[in-house]
Amino acid sequence: MKTIDLQMNTVGERLKYLRETLGFNQVEFAERVEMEQSYLSKLEKGHKGLGKRLLKIMSSTFEFNENWLLTGEGEMFPEKKERSDVQENGAAYQSPMLRGPRGVTSYIPEHLIKVPLIGVNARAGFVENLDNYTEYISDYEYVVPDYGVKYDKAIAISVDGDSMEPGMQRGDRVLAFFQEISEWEYLNPGIYAVVYRNSFVIKRIMKNTLQATGQLELISDNAIHGPITVKIEDIKAIWKVTELIRRRLY
């Protein structure tokens, strides 16, 4: 059994102790909070400072005592009761627990909406099984809901590639809402996730020409990537991207 180093005089040393208590190696811990392992290593060694935003992401993921991490005072994990106020697509949902390899549990923050996450590795199955894609979802994202918005057809998407840089970078997660076929000809300019033929892309629509030409031009924000012209009969599904949920930290 691996011995955990109990020297915890700095934030970095306490962060390492927290990670080892949860039973994660650096790669596993970093993936949970969408951070590079190299950045986590620098935090633990004290070569980087822990910012407020990253602290909030970590504490909401693992539900530890922020004051303990920053000062060493108090308990590492506050006592928690299981909550039932997380919503799954707008319905009451029993708050799930995040369980580490050593059995330490944490809770998803309250008042959030649970939506299916389409990861990079899941895209092939997602495209092939659009009618029943929820059966192939193994992960979810939790978003802060807007009043009056219905999330029953919302998905979260992991951004892949560099075609939408600098606004969207590889590893970012965005929220997107399904657009009915009857709405396609009236889509406003914006960023959309489009499934056409066997491809799944996130691109910008500058001008909707479906009604006039039967084609849609998909534009990349990164100038090194050219536009893509897609015929309406090749389009299988469209989601409108509305917000950046989580930015990958480097």
UniProtKB/TrEMBL annotation:
UniProt xrefs under InterPro entries: Cro/C1-type_HTH, Lambda_DNA-bd_dom_sf, LexA-like, LexA/Signal_pep-like_sf, Peptidase_S24_S26A/B/C
Check the record and name the SUPFAM superfamilies matching this protein.
Answer: lambda repressor-like DNA-binding domains, LexA/Signal peptidase
**Highest taxon of the source?**
Bacteria
Q: Which Gene3D superfamilies match?
A: lambda repressor-like DNA-binding domains, Umud Fragment, subunit A
Which CDD domains does the record cross-reference, listed alphabetically?
HTH_XRE (cd00093), S24_LexA-like (cd06529)
Q: Any keyword Isomerase?
A: no
Which GO molecular function terms does the record list? DNA binding
Supply the Pfam families for this chain.
HTH_19, Peptidase_S24
Every HTH cro/C1-type domain range: 15-69
Which UniProt key words apply to this protein?
A: DNA-binding, Transcription, Transcription regulation
Q: Has the keyword ATP-binding been applied to this entry?
A: no
Please name the PROSITE patterns in this protein's record: HTH_CROC1 (PS50943)
Checking PANTHER family in the record gives: FELS-1 PROPHAGE TRANSCRIPTIONAL REGULATOR, PTHR40661
The name this protein carries in UniProt is HTH cro/C1-type domain-containing protein
Record the organism.
Runella rosea
